[in-house]
Amino acid sequence: MSDKISRRDFIKRSAVGVIAGGAILSSLDLTALANSPAARGVIRNAGDDTVVKLADNSALTKVGGSVKISDEMMLIRKSESTFIAVRTICTHKGCDVELEGDKFVCPCHGSEFTVDGVVTQGPATKNLKIFETIFDSGNGTVTIKTSTNEKSE
Fold first, then answer.
1. Number of domains in the chain
2. Least confident span in 14-23, 90-99, 103-112
């Protein structure tokens, strides 16, 4: 007996597989997966400010590590005691910039920014917004002053 299947049976089986796979994927809450603690930093609010505990965000335990704080903010560890909070919205047309190595890149129109938010390639002409950060080594926390005192634009 031959183990071959006809082209018609192959197409039928493939169609059933595609339909079943589509049904399974449509039942998943992809938004919840994208917003899971693994994809986004564990934070708490302190009044209008944001407090990030390093022990809860393993990516921040090493220099160069980063964590997405919200849809519009990323915290990056620049040195053992220095952190930078960057608003990740392009100043050109409001697209979400992405951290690629040592720079932010806007996927919409190609603007590029340093990790410090300084525009290095247009069409954007304004820097990304930077928020003041306060590192408390005793508590292992970084406070992001989101209420006032944006450092640059």
1. 1
2. 14-23
Q: Cβ(98)–Cβ(90) under 8 Å?
A: no
Tokens, residue 23:
């049904």
Q: Please name the residue that has the structure tokens 């932010």.
A: 104
Find the mean pLDDT for residues 53-71. 83
Question: At 112, which CATH number?
Answer: 2.102.10.10
Q: Is residue 78 part of a domain?
A: yes
Instruction: Provide the edge-to-edge strand list for the sheet that holds 98-100.
Output: 98-100, 103-105, 112-114, 119-121
CB-count burial class (<10 Å; 0-12, 13-18, 19+) for 78: middle
In-domain check, residue 129: yes
For residue 49, give its domain range: 43-152
User: CA 66 to CA 41: how far, in whole Å?
Assistant: 9
Total-model pTM: 0.63
* 3-class SS string, 125-149: CCCCCEECEEEECCCCEEEECCCCC
